[in-house]
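Customer escalation, tier 2.

The customer says the design service returned an amino acid string that "doesn't look like it belongs to this structure." They asked us to rerun it and document both sides in this ticket. The original structure tokens are below, unchanged.
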């Protein structure tokens, strides 16, 4: 069945000759079927992400490339199909040698799509927005090189939550909960949930445990005098040096990102990452 003509964004992994060659092949295949194609390199901001008529994206890369593209098109309902040029590929699950069938099935609507939430964040300095954006995995506030604590006032939906002294704090989505957050003692969340994890990093005197909040929760984090040099990091890929007096605001965006492809079963994903051992998962269930 011939799919309708679309404007398709093709994003290749930066500095990968193999991905560049496949990008050219896929572009020719799509144009031969009547689709409009815009091809760019990943890892950078590009005006192509803002094109108003984009309605599908093919990403040639690993999960890092997928995260970068997902952040830039979040909230627009653009399906993202990943062709894996990374190591494991939780988000990009089609192998390069299977690209033609995978792409044809996706464009024809045969391949399932799944949505997930994201995080919307901004940094306010002197009552003006200094920076803002979207995170698919997590937003992290952490200390820099010196072994001193980050001093923060943390509010939740207009209520005072706590004054925290720690190495930092992580706010993560369900799909990001299996990354930095779980290493810092946070819980693992089922990927389809709409909620956020708040995980303090080595809090002084264990003042507050990790907690799970509804996705609509709005966090306000104020950096207090005496804090050490502090950075905000988004998905482990983008960073900004903060100052005393800065406020970081974070809230959830429901169904912000759409991935094409059958999701890896939750416990298989946990086994792949070593959270569940083969011995612990030996029972057979149907």
């Amino acid at each position: 069945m011939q799919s309708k003509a679309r404007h398709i964004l093709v994003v290749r992994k930066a500095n990968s000759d193999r991905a560049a060659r496949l990008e050219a092949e896929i572009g020719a295949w799509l144009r031969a079927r009547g689709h409009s194609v815009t091809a760019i390199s990943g890892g950078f901001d590009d005006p192509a992400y803002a094109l108003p008529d984009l309605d599908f994206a093919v990403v040639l890369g690993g999960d890092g490339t997928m995260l970068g593209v997902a952040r830039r098109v979040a909230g627009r309902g653009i399906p993202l199909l990943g062709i894996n040029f990374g190591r494991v590929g939780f988000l990009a699950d089609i192998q390069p040698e299977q690209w033609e069938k995978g792409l044809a099935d996706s464009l024809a609507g045969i391949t399932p799509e799944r949505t997930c939430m994201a995080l919307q964040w901004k940094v306010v300095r002197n009552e003006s927005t200094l920076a803002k954006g979207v995170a698919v995995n997590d937003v992290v506030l952490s200390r820099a090189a010196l072994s001193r604590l980050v001093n923060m006032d943390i509010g939740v939906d207009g209520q005072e939550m706590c004054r925290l002294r720690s190495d930092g704090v992580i706010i993560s989505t369900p799909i990001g909960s299996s990354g930095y957050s779980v290493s810092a003692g946070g819980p693992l969340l089922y990927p389809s949930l709409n909620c956020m994890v708040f995980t303090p990093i080595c809090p002084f005197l264990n003042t507050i445990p990790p907690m799970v909040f509804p996705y609509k929760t709005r966090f306000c984090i104020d950096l207090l005098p005496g804090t050490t040099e502090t950075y905000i990091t988004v998905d482990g890929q983008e960073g900004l040096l903060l100052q005393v007096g800065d406020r970081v605001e974070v809230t959830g965006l429901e169904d912000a990102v759409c991935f094409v492809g059958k999701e890896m079963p939750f416990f298989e994903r946990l086994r792949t990452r070593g959270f569940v051992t083969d011995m612990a998962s030996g029972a057979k269930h149907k």
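Tier 2 assessment: The sequence is consistent with the input. The chain has two domains: 7-111, 118-254. The first strand starts at residue 7 and ends at 12. Sent an explanation to the customer and offered a walkthrough call.
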